[in-house]
Amino acid sequence: MINGPVTKMDQRFSDPDAVATEWEETRHVLEAAELFWISTVRSDGRPHVSPLVAVWLDGAIHFSTGTDEQKAINLRENPHVILTTGCNDWKEGLDVVVEGDAVRATDEAMLARLAEAWTKKWDGQWQFEVRNGSFYHKEGGMALVFSVKPTKILAFGKGKFSHTRYQF
Predict the structure, then answer these.
(1) Using one digit for the tens of pLDDT, what is the confidence trace for 31-90?
(2) Which residues belong to any copy of the Pyridoxamine 5'-phosphate oxidase N-terminal domain (predicted)?
(3) pTM for the full model?
(4) Residue 30: phi, psi to the nearest 5?
(5) How far, in Å, CA of 82 to CA of 61, rounded?
(6) Which residues make beta-bridge pairs with 80?
(7) Calpha distance 5→97 (Å, rounded)
């Protein structure tokens, strides 16, 4: 993605004088976000939403989950996810919605890079060892790692309201 995604402003949901949010600003929000909300779908079709920590690296969002957590159970049958981040302030900020499929990450070199990214982003509060294609907490618990390459990202600017769509 040398030139970035295709960027479009949706005038239907934007102030008349608003401009599209630059991809660099949206990418910065994804890189800096300390908390995301993930939406998955249960086997009976009901939605499931949960907060989680994640990292943006190499054009994808990566997250981990225990094997018995509801999101992991849901992903076994349906990989489609939405991840959101932003702020709950009405007058300022940027809310971002990422759509894509969660794919299990098992490559140990990539997992090592991700473990380092988690440690760095949260000043050592999240530390993982990499073994057997998974993360392991120091306390011994195993976590699966998933990567979401976006198919679409929406950015909602506030104050001067804008709705920007990035297509990948």
Answers:
(1) 999 999 999 999 999 999 999 999 999 999 999 999 999 999 999 999 999 999 998 888
(2) 24-135
(3) 0.93
(4) -65, -40
(5) 11
(6) 101
(7) 15
The CA distance from 123 to 120, in Å, is 5
Q: Give the C-alpha separation, 83 to 32, whole Å.
A: 14
15 near 25, Cβ under 8 Å? Answer: no
DSSP 76-122: HH--EEEEEE----SSS-EEEEEEEEEEE---HHHHHHHHHHHHHHT
Q: Report the alpha-carbon distance of residue 69 to residue 67 in Å, rounded.
A: 6
Contact 54, 63 (CB under 8 A): yes
CA-CA distance, 107 to 48, in Å (whole number)?
Answer: 28
Place of tokens 């349906």: 78
Write down the pLDDT at residue 145. Answer: 98
Identity at 94, one-letter amino acid code: L
Q: At which residue do the structure tokens 């993982």 appear?
A: 128
Residue written as tokens 């759509």?
Answer: 99
Which are the contacts of 131, defined by CB distance < 8 A and separation ≥ 6?
none
- List of domains in the chain: 6-167 (2.30.110.10)
CA distance 150 to 145: 16
